[in-house]
Design a protein that fits this description.
The protein is mainly alpha-helical and 458 residues long. The protein has two domains: 218 residues, Orthogonal Bundle (Catalytic domain of cyclic nucleotide phosphodiesterase 4b2b); 110 residues, no CATH class. The protein contains 20 helices and two strands. It has a two-stranded antiparallel sheet with strand order 1-2. The chain is globular and about 60 Å long. The protein starts with a helix and ends in a 13-residue tail after the last helix. 40% of the residues are buried. The protein binds zinc ion. The site of zinc ion (ZN) has 5 residues, from helix 8.
C-alpha cells in the first residue's frame, strides 16, 4: 500500500471517529464553553472552538449549569481530560473540582445517636406516615442509599440474587449522587420517598402474595432511579429550547427516557448484575424501562383507562407476569404522585418544594423570553391553586382506581389524607383574596397531552 493510500485511509478513519462523537449529548451555552457529554461512553469536554460547525443543543443556548449557579462558568483545560461516564450531575461535580471549587458539604460527622435513630426509623419503613425528611436528616442526606439498601435486605434480594453488597452500595451511591441536590423537588429525597411508597404497595396483600423476587427487585430499582439526573425543568421546556435530549427522544417521554437510560448506565457501570446472564440483564433493563416510562404523567390517560377496563371486566390475573408488571407500573405511578396522600405535614412540604421548582423554571423562562409555562408563573399562581388542580385531575382519578384494585386500610388512609389535604388547600385558597378563581381553567386550558381530562371523583 502506498503512503498516499494509508494517509487517505487514516483521514477517513479520523473523519469517522469525529462523526461518531456527534452522538454525544451536548449542552451548549452562550459563554465561552460548550460541553459535549457522552452518555454510555467516554466523556469529552472541549472548547467550543473545536465545534464551531457542529453547534447543537438548546436555543437560546441555555446551559443547565446556570440553573443553580450565579457565578461565571469556566471549564479549565485540564477538564478536557475527563474520560468516564458522567451524568449531567456528575459532570457538574467534576467541573467544580477542575475549577478548584469546593462545595460546602454538610458532612457533619454523625454520632451514634443519629445513626441509632435512623435505624429505629427503618424498623417502621412500611408505615405510611414514615417521615422521609427526618430520615434524610438523620442519615445526613443519605436517605436514598440507606433506605434502598435496607429494603433490598428486608426483601431478601441480596441473598436471592447473590448480590455483592459492596457493588450494591456503590450502585446506590452513584444513583443518589446523580440526583441533583439543588433541585427543590426532583432530588434524591423524592426518589427515596417514592421507593418507600413503592415498598408499602408491594406489601399490600394482593401484590405480596403473587410477586416474585424478580418483580420486587425491578420495582425497587425502578422506584429509586425513576427521576435519575432530572434537570429540574419539564419536557415542554426541553422541547421549546430545542434541547438535544428532546431531539434524541423525539419529544416523547424525553425525561423518562433519560432517567431510564441513566439507570441502565449505572447498572452496567456498577457491575451489580454482571454475574447474571446477558439475557436476564437485557430483560431487566427493558422491564425497568417499562416501569420508568409509565411515570410520564402525559401518558396517564392511557394507563388509567387500561386499568379501569381491567377492573371493570375483573380480569386481572396476578399469576400472569404481564398483568403483574402492569400493576407494578400502576403502583409506581401511584408512588410517584402520592404526595397529596401523605399526612398534611409531609404533603405540605412536598407541595412547597414542587412549586418552588415550577417557579424557578418560570423565572428562567421569563429571563430568556421563552414564554412562561403553565403553573410556573410566581406572579399569577399559588401553591393552593396548583395543588387543588393536581389533586382533582391527576391524583384523585388514579388513587380512586387503585383503591378499587386494592381496597385495603392503606388505600382508605391515602384517600382520607387526600380529601383532608384538598380541603386544607381550599381553605388556604379562600383566605387568599383575589386568587384561586381560575385554577380549574388553568388545568383545563393546558394541553390535553400534558394534563389528561379525567372525570372528577369529588
Ligand atoms: Zn418522580
Amino acid at each position: 500500500m502506498g503512503i498516499a493510500l494509508i494517509w487517505c485511509l487514516a483521514l477517513i478513519l479520523i473523519k469517522w471517529i469525529t462523526s461518531k462523537r456527534r452522538g454525544a449529548i451536548s449542552y451548549d451555552s452562550s459563554d465561552q464553553t460548550a460541553l459535549y457529554i457522552r452518555m454510555l461512553g467516554d466523556v469529552r469536554v472541549r472548547s467550543r472552538a473545536g465545534f464551531e460547525t457542529d453547534r447543537r443543543g438548546s436555543h437560546p443556548y441555555i446551559d443547565f449549569r446556570i440553573f443553580h449557579s450565579n457565578s461565571e462558568i469556566e471549564v479549565s483545560v485540564s477538564a478536557r481530560n475527563v474520560r468516564r461516564l458522567l451524568s449531567f450531575q456528575r459532570y457538574l461535580r467534576s467541573s467544580r473540582f477542575f475549577r478548584g471549587i469546593t462545595v460546602p458539604n454538610s458532612s457533619n460527622i454523625l454520632d451514634d445517636d443519629y445513626n441509632g435513630q435512623a435505624k429505629c426509623m427503618l424498623e417502621k419503613v412500611g408505615n405510611w406516615n414514615f417521615d422521609i425528611f427526618l430520615f434524610d436528616r438523620l442519615t445526613n442526606g443519605n436517605s436514598l442509599v440507606s433506605l434502598t439498601f435496607h429494603l433490598f435486605n428486608l426483601h431478601g434480594l441480596i441473598e436471592h440474587f447473590q448480590l455483592d453488597t459492596m457493588k450494591l452500595r456503590r450502585f446506590l451511591v452513584m444513583v443518589q449522587e446523580d440526583y441533583h441536590s439543588q433541585n427543590p423537588y426532583h432530588n434524591a429525597v423524592h426518589a427515596a420517598d417514592v421507593t418507600q411508597a413503592m415498598h408499602c404497595y408491594l406489601k399490600e396483600p394482593k401484590l405480596s402474595k403473587s410477586l416474585t423476587p424478580w418483580d420486587v427487585l425491578l420495582s425497587l430499582i425502578a422506584a429509586a432511579t425513576h427521576d435519575l439526573d432530572h434537570p429540574g425543568v419539564n419536557q415542554p421546556f426541553l422541547i421549546k429550547t430545542n434541547h438535544y435530549l428532546a431531539t434524541l427522544y423525539k419529544n416523547t417521554s424525553v425525561l423518562e427516557n433519560h432517567h431510564w437510560r441513566s439507570a441502565v448506565g449505572l447498572l452496567r457501570e456498577s457491575g451489580l448484575f454482571a454475574h447474571m446472564s446477558l439475557e436476564n440483564r437485557q430483560l431487566m433493563e427493558s422491564q425497568i424501562g417499562d416501569l420508568i416510562l409509565a411515570t410520564d404523567i402525559s401518558q396517564q390517560n392511557e394507563y388509567l383507562s387500561m386499568f379501569r377496563s381491567h377492573l371493570d371486566r375483573g380480569d386481572l390475573c396476578l399469576e400472569n407476569a404481564n398483568h403483574r408488571h402492569f400493576i407494578l407500573q400502576m403502583a409506581l405511578k401511584c408512588a410517584d404522585i402520592c404526595n397529596p396522600c401523605r399526612t398534611w405535614e409531609l404533603s405540605k412540604q412536598w407541595s412547597e418544594k414542587v412549586t418552588e421548582e415550577f417557579f424557578h423554571q418560570g423565572d428562567i423562562e421569563k429571563k430568556y423570553h421563552l414564554g412562561v409555562s403553565p403553573l410556573c408563573d410566581r406572579q399569577t399562581e399559588t401553591i393552593a391553586n396548583i395543588q387543588i388542580g393536581f389533586m382533582t385531575y391527576l391524583v384523585e382519578p388514579l388513587f380512586g382506581e387503585w383503591a378499587r384494585f386494592s381496597n385495603t386500610r392503606l388505600s382508605q388512609t391515602m384517600l382520607g389524607h387526600l380529601g383532608l389535604n384538598k380541603a386544607s388547600w381550599k381553605g388556604v385558597q379562600r383566605e387568599q383574596s383575589g386568587s384561586g378563581d381560575d385554577v380549574d381553567a388553568t388545568f383545563e386550558e393546558m394541553d390535553s397531552d400534558i394534563l389528561p381530562q379525567e372525570p372528577r371523583l369529588s
